[in-house]
């Protein structure tokens, strides 16, 4: 894929569309291009699928205090003319709005950190499998298991985005590479084997946290193969969550904050931060789908202060709400709404060494009950846990059923490693790290 040519095409389409506004009309155009390709990498070689191209043009037409949104698959001029005509017919029924000012200045975008134009070269793909095999040979013995890479699939998605408006007749643009590395790991312990898929996401192939991915897979597989015993009195009150389980728990916290659930005043040992410019985040952007500059936003501070994410549709529609740069389409709607992008926990720096941890490890999280995790102000989750001794799984430990509020979970955090992995959803991704919780401050029970 030629990233430069795709960005040029996106800019040209956005500028041409925005320039079609009539007198007293405002036309904003956002052009999204994507070229996606899968590579399956095994000992026998590399099999690459055909590139899949997908282009979308989003158009906003505003006039007389109302606006409408529409989209077109592709960038053909005839389609864009038809979309504008359809928008003009719908304008009398459009949403009331008023222009709002951006909250943040234009973002300084480090293009190099988000692009990888060499990920699909034969040498890079061959080195990827060799590196994974080497890491498996290193990680496995430290966990008292044998790890083998049974299958590996790398999905590379090169994206270009351009935005043009009356204030930006010369389109602003950026490029991003989205990588998804899915690995089938075979874990063997005491003559028993299990295979499980694990994945990591990012922007640059050499920077994917592959060692962390295999550590998590090794412990998870060893726990599923080990004999089970309910934790005794000496199990302690500390629970360490693996990155994927930690991201699932943080995802519940984020939903509470975005949905406006009340959270008691801190202090909390961690800040919940949304960062559209996070390296490794799956939903990164220097500006949102309305062209407003994006940047880090504190969803919940340590003292309990909260920041509301906004877009043009937020508030009273009179332009009194400053734009935080979080306008994005959710679900099938063509109208942007205020959504998070890449959320993580920020804590004070520490020397927390997860690979030296001894105690209970939670390697999987799922909802509990018919309400799917939520009951009033609390959510209830089931955590599959194992007991670690000297970095190895001593035995499986059944399930911990945890019931807590957002404030209780945040208050129970005792230590965490820096966030290196983001786990993507449809509208935003959540950062996962090795996270330690103090169970004594939470409501929980062991289930054998």
From TrEMBL:
It comes from the Bacteria. It holds the Pfam family PmbA_TldD_3rd. Residues 271-420 form the Metalloprotease TldD/E C-terminal domain. Residues 1-20 are annotated as: Disordered. InterPro entries: Metalloprtase-TldD/E_C, TldD/PmbA_sf. This is Metallopeptidase TldD-related protein. It comes from Streptomyces poriferorum.
């Amino acid at each position: 894929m030629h990233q430069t040519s795709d960005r040029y095409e996106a800019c040209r389409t956005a500028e041409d569309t925005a320039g079609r506004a009539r007198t007293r009309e405002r036309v904003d155009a956002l052009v999204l291009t994507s070229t996606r390709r899968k590579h399956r990498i095994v000992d026998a070689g590399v099999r690459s699928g055909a590139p899949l191209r997908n282009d979308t043009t989003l158009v906003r037409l505003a006039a007389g205090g109302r606006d409408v949104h529409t989209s077109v698959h592709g960038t053909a001029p005839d389609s864009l003319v038809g979309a504008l005509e359809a928008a003009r017919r719908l304008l009398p029924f459009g949403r009331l709005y008023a222009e709002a000012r951006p909250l943040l200045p234009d973002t300084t975008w480090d293009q190099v950190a988000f692009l990888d134009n060499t990920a699909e070269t034969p040498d890079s793909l061959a080195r990827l499998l060799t590196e994974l095999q080497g890491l498996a040979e290193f990680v496995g013995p430290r966990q008292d298991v044998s790890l083998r890479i049974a299958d590996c699939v790398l999905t590379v998605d090169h994206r270009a985005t351009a935005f043009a408006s009356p204030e930006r007749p010369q389109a602003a643009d950026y490029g991003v590479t989205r990588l998804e590395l899915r690995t089938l790991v075979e874990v063997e312990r005491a003559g028993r084997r299990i295979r499980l898929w694990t994945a990591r996401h990012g922007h640059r192939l050499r920077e994917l946290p592959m060692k962390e991915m295999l550590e998590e897979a090794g412990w998870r597989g060893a726990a599923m193969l080990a004999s089970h015993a309910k934790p005794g009195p000496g199990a302690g009150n500390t629970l360490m969550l693996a990155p994927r389980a930690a991201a699932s728990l943080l995802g519940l916290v984020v939903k509470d904050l975005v949905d406006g659930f009340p959270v008691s005043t801190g202090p909390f040992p961690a800040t919940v931060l949304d960062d559209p410019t996070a390296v490794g985040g799956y939903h990164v952007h220097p500006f949102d789908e309305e062209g407003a500059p994006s940047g880090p936003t504190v969803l919940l501070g340590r003292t309990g202060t909260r920041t509301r994410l906004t877009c043009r549709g937020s508030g009273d529609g009179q332009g009194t709400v400053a734009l935080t740069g979080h306008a994005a389409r959710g679900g099938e709607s063509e109208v942007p709404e205020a959504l998070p992008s890449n959320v993580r926990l920020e804590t004070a720096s520490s020397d927390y060494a997860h690979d030296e941890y001894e105690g209970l490890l939670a390697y999987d999280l799922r909802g509990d009950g018919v309400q799917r995790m939520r009951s009033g102000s609390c959510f209830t989750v089931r955590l599959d846990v194992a007991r670690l001794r000297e970095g190895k799984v001593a035995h499986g430990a059944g399930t911990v059923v945890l019931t807590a509020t957002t404030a209780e979970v945040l208050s129970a955090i005792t230590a965490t490693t820096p966030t290196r992995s983001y786990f993507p959803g449809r509208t935003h991704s959540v950062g996962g790290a090795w996270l330690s919780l103090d169970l004594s401050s939470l409501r929980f029970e062991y289930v054998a």
